[in-house]
Design brief:
Elements: H1 8-16, H2 36-54, H3 60-78, H4 83-90, H5 96-115, E1 126-132, H6 135-147, E2 158-162, E3 166-171, H7 174-185, H8 189-194, E4 197-200, E5 206-211, E6 218-223, E7 228-239
Antiparallel strand pairs: 1-7, 2-3, 3-6, 4-5, 5-7, 6-7
Helix pairs in contact: 1-2, 2-3
């Protein structure tokens, strides 16, 4: 059955139609103790449930987080006398693709340096890179991977989980990691793969290589409240004779 689409007015009426809310007083008004954010969250719950009924595979979690953030930003903008002066700047569209392109190139550089660095005493063949990125950018990345039709971004090659505090994207295939970075950076896959191998010189002569498999995943972690992005990975080191030094 084809999905039914609603006008802006119909959606607005749907959000506002519930007049039996426990938070309403006798005159049909919200109590003063209720904040705009609390009321908006309640209405988004209703709207997300409705959207999931009419739209197959609707991502309720992402919808609620994204809509709440934009709604609160608009509320703040419209509540200040300086809103009109700032409106043009705040309404400027920023392309998430261009941000992720420059960010992912930095991630590759950081990964390359990590696997070629001195081994740590604790977890010597485990690396992590941290960045601060806007939550909307990560949500866009997560949504793109979720909606992808490529096998490299479907189970068992890719797992995505999350809650109100954060989200985790876990890749279990090296091919998936290569393809993800190729798409984000705009580099050819052969160029991306060069970042996953670091030639070691001197007394450490040999090669360090990124390892991705079902036991050692390549993981992207994001914490919504802190805006912290972490990339975790495993690698191995082989000496000049090709003998593995890692376990």
């Amino acid at each position: 059955m084809a999905a039914k689409y609603f006008t802006v007015e119909e959606v607005r009426d749907l959000v506002l139609e519930d007049t039996t809310d426990d938070n309403l007083d006798e005159d049909g008004e919200y109590e003063e103790s209720d904040s705009f954010e609390e009321v908006m969250k309640e209405k988004l719950e209703e709207l997300a449930e409705f959207a999931a009924e009419i739209q197959p595979e609707f991502d309720e979690h992402t919808f609620k987080i994204s809509t709440l953030r934009f709604g609160l930003a608009c509320f703040t903008l419209c509540s200040t006398p300086y809103g009109n002066a700032m409106k043009r700047v705040l309404e400027t569209t920023i392309n998430c693709g261009s941000i992720l392109c420059s960010e992912s190139r930095l991630w590759l550089e950081m990964l390359y340096r990590k696997i070629g660095g001195r081994a740590k005493i604790r977890n010597p063949y485990f690396g992590e890179c941290k960045r601060d990125i806007p939550v909307d950018v990560f949500i866009a990345l997560q949504s793109a991977i979720k909606s992808s039709s490529l096998n490299q971004f479907k189970e068992p090659n890719c797992y995505i989980a999350g809650n109100g505090k954060g989200a985790v994207i876990s890749l279990t295939s090296r091919k998936s990691v290569v393809m993800l970075f190729s798409i984000l950076t705009g580099y050819r896959e052969i160029r991306v793969q060069k970042y996953f191998t670091h030639t070691l010189k001197g007394s450490r002569s040999g090669k360090a290589k990124l390892i991705v498999n079902m036991e050692k995943n390549f993981v992207l972690i994001y914490k919504y409240k802190q805006g912290k992005f972490t990339m975790e990975f495993n690698f191995g080191v082989w000496n000049a004779s090709g003998f593995p030094l890692h376990t």
